[in-house]
Design a protein that fits this description.
two-stranded antiparallel sheet; mainly alpha; 4 strands
Length: 240
Amino acid sequence: DFLRHQKQRGVPVTDVIDFLERETERLDLDILRPSWLLYEKSSQTDILYRWLKRLFDLVFSSGLLLLTSPALMLTVLAIWIEGGMSAPVFYRQRRVGRHGRAFDLMKFRSMRVNAEQHTGPRFSSADDDRVTRTGRLIRRFRLDELPQLLNVILGDMSVVGPRPERPEFVDILSRQVPLYGYRHGVRPGLTGWAQLNFPYGASMDDAREKLTYDLYYIKNTNIVTDLLILLQTLEVVVWG
């Protein structure tokens, strides 16, 4: 009754979920109700937006591949110099994409060969001891991610979206983190809102934190948001 009376007097009344979303630019999993996401409007249900996003993905990824071709060749050369001509240049890894479909994500190899042979799958971290000298350099400028432009062209990924996770981790996270599967309703991306705000996730708590940003992106996504995320990603790559 108090809130109704205040609203009738012209005082704006905001739901706590909307308030926290606006102020923090992420969704709080502790108070978020699944039905709130279900009934909220999103560009993901807009057919025109999905077509425009796919067209943008194709044009952007093809153009960037041509533009960065000299850097791609230098990266291949650097990997061969450090590891030898017989060393693998690319690294394929199974990831989970849209609707839970698995695909092979492509990267330039930035870790030593058979880096998980004795440890099994584990989260990557900022100071990962498996990373080679060349790997640290190409990771610094995100060059190791450029082969994923082929994944974008093939339709496995988008330029902007939640980062795809490995099936081994998805199985665990889906059981332990509420609404984790919601992020698989869109194509995963080369870069995303979570990557700009929470660069590395090396634990369950980190994965939960990154999900709050992924859900915010999925709910608020549009072409303008995607372009702003790309501009901020460029800022990170150029100035670190």
